Fold Type II CAAX endopeptidase family protein.
Amino acid sequence: MDHVSKKFRAASFSKPLVLSICLMCTAMVFRLLDIFVFRLDDLLGEIIFSKIIGFVMVLLFVKAMGAPLSSIGFNVHNKLSIFLLGVVVTSTLMVLGYAGELLILASDSPQLIIAAIDPKAGVTGGMGFAVFLLLGNIINCFMEEGLFRGIMIPLLNRKYTLRVTLFLQALLFGIWHIPWAFKWYLSGIVSGPGGLMMALLIIFLPMVLIGIFLVRCTIIQVLSEHHGYLILSSTQF
């Protein structure tokens, strides 16, 4: 283990970008298997296998580097206030969003239906499925934020300026989400070269911006605010 740790530490200083790309590509292999081979998003509504593998990979890398989990943002300082802030922000967005939807659809006499839907695959279900989505998003939050913000930013910042570091990790974060564009194309959600290109832009550019925005968030803040909003937004009329 000490030999492996020394190799990781040496690579983190000499080739941080190469190491970051290798980490992402390793996790990407399981991600692609989940989406295109096992098709767990279609079967279960969550690519849970690759999320768990990615999370374990983050933990193993941190251990191999001989660093504490707090070094990549897994800290619990002020966790209650951060959680409450996330609840308030998320609840406010949900209330405003559904209030606007009610006003728009008022003439159609809309009914409130509590359900869960995976926005990527369109799989729907009841309360049990909602709990499963919640668990999947929690694991995904720790995996993605631990990898792209917690690990990559300190690695890249050892060699590059802060601006270059932020751009590189955001670029890799955008690339990480590109498989969904091809999934939409293969599933018929979009069609033709134009549709595929639009899907690539719709997925890639926002993820790059999110990758930059989330830099200042701790793991818990991201969990309670960003992913929390995505989870609650799965409740639909």
